[in-house]
């Protein structure tokens, strides 16, 4: 009997202990669930309702800081710009702005130039930072990347300045010549001489305005909207016919050759203008009694067959330093010679844009006093047409101004890589 009582007492004591332990474990579990964890301090729980959703759709880089300057929330763009590192805001001026805003509650905004990470070229990253209080404890930092906008604005300013200068020259000349005509009204020979000069300046002004229109058109239009198969030999014949008068005046022989029955896919008008500009430059910058060759060939490439149209001259050539910039707007290798030939400095820029918008490129090989070879490389009609149906063409554009940065980089192409040296029975045109 005593043994049974002892066993019962022991079982009762064990039950009581088990109950106490269970109660303590339950209370401890509840306490742990209510305790804020480290992750909850830095997630949506501390943000006002709806803020996280708003931040996720903002185009600006967003960073939310708490009262200890720790990052509570940061967008992926903020990390990409290097604003946040190791859970801290890494830009001291922005951090100071956040502290000042937390102290007085005022909204602040500033533009900063930050070093660009990972480029090794010391380029600055232009940003606009705006800081505002978010509730009683948090501060919101919004950062907008202004680098591209500033680049576009610089290009626009340069373009407007160049256009203004180029327009001012012939307009000023016309004004002075008109005054000279009035003063020499009793001298028929002087009137005839001044009228001839006025005609030259008027022609130059007309060419400049037309090329500005052409450049604007090739930058803003989609050339593949009205694309069609274009015969290369027709483009070559049209370019030769365009320059026939200038070539005849300098006794320059123009030879056309290469493979026959080649076609490219694109806008006929833009392609004709691009090739015409190359041939016209070759004639204008070639000495008298030389020759200009235009040859076309098909080239196999991994991305699809291409057509290369090479324009070769025996002119003054281009130095290495000038080859880096010849595709920039208004850039001239020899400004004095360009004025004499009526060049505007826009022809090669138009060629570059036409080639790029058609999925091709233009390259140059040149040696001083030996001549130059410009090669227009375009996708062949079949492959280009298939790609145009699958994916829309991409343009070189830059914002609302319709302008882009002119890198002016060219890839050297030797004359041996073109078909000009092996023209099969070229057609010689006077």
N-end to C-end Cα span: 137 Å
Following the backbone from N to C, one meets helices and strands in this order, namely HHHEEHEEHEEEHHEHHEEHEEHHHEEHE
The CATH class designation of the largest domain is Alpha Beta
How many domains? The number is: 2
User: Shape from CA axes?
Assistant: elongated
Task: Summarize the biggest pleated sheet.
Answer: 6 strands, mixed
Number of helices: 14
Content-based structural category? alpha+beta
Q: Count the strands?
A: 15
User: Could you estimate the helical fraction of the residues in percent?
Assistant: 40-55%
Pfam family, one: HATPase_c
Subcellular location: Cell membrane
Enzyme class: transferase
Membrane topology: Multi-pass membrane protein
Question: Topology, pairings included?
Answer:
Layout: H1 2-34, H2 38-41, H3 51-57, E1 61-65, E2 71-74, H4 76-80, E3 84-85, E4 88-89, H5 92-104, E5 108-115, E6 124-134, E7 138-145, H6 147-183, H7 188-220, E8 228-231, H8 232-242, H9 244-249, E9 253-258, E10 263-266, H10 268-284, E11 291-299, E12 306-313, H11 320-323, H12 335-341, H13 347-357, E13 361-367, E14 371-379, H14 381-390, E15 427-429
Parallel strand pairs: 9-11
Antiparallel strand pairs: 1-2, 1-7, 3-4, 5-6, 6-7, 8-10, 9-15, 11-12, 12-14, 13-14
GO molecular function: ATP binding; phosphoprotein phosphatase activity; phosphorelay sensor kinase activity
Protein name: Sensor-like histidine kinase SenX3
GO cellular component, one term: plasma membrane
């Amino acid at each position: 009997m005593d043994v049974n009582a002892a066993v019962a007492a022991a079982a009762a004591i064990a039950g009581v202990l088990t109950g106490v332990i269970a109660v303590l474990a339950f209370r401890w579990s509840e306490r742990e669930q209510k305790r804020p964890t480290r992750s909850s301090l830095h997630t949506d729980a501390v943000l006002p309702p709806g803020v996280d959703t708003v931040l996720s759709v903002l185009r600006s880089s967003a960073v939310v800081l708490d009262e200890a300057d720790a990052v509570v929330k940061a967008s992926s763009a903020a990390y990409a710009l290097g604003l946040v590192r190791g859970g801290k805001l890494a830009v001291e001026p922005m951090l100071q702005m956040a502290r000042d805003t937390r102290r007085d509650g005022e909204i602040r905004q500033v533009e900063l130039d930050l070093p660009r990470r990972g480029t090794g070229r010391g380029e600055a990253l232009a940003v606009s930072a705006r800081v505002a209080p978010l509730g009683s404890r948090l501060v919101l930092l919004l950062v907008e990347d202004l680098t591209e906008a500033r680049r576009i604005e610089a290009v626009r300013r340069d373009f407007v300045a160049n256009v203004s200068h180029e327009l001012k020259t012939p307009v000023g000349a016309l004004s002075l010549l008109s005054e000279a005509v009035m003063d020499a009204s009793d001298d028929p020979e002087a009137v005839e001489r001044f009228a001839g000069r006025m005609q030259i300046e008027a022609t130059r002004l007309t060419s400049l305005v037309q090329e500005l229109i052409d450049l604007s058109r090739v930058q803003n239009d989609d050339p593949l909207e009205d694309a069609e198969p274009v015969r290369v030999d027709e483009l070559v014949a049209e370019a030769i016919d365009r320059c026939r008068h200038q070539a005849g005046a300098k006794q320059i022989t123009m030879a056309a050759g290469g493979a026959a029955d080649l076609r490219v896919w694109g806008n006929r008008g833009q392609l004709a203008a691009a090739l015409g500009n190359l041939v016209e430059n070759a004639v204008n910058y070639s000495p008298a009694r030389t020759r200009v060759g235009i040859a076309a060939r098909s080239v196999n490439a991994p991305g699809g067959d291409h057509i290369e149209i090479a324009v070769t001259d025996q002119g003054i050539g281009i130095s290495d330093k000038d080859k880096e910039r010849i595709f920039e707007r208004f850039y001239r290798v020899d400004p004095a010679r360009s004025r004499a030939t009526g060049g505007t400095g826009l022809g090669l820029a138009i060629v570059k844009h036409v080639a790029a918008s058609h999925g091709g490129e233009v390259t140059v090989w040149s040696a001083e006093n030996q001549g130059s070879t410009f090669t227009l490389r375009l996708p062949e009609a079949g492959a280009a047409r298939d790609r145009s149906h699958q994916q829309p063409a991409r343009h070189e554009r830059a914002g609302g101004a319709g302008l882009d940065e002119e890198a002016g980089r060219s890839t050297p192409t030797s004359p041996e890589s073109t078909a000009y040296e092996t023209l099969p029975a070229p057609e010689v045109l006077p």
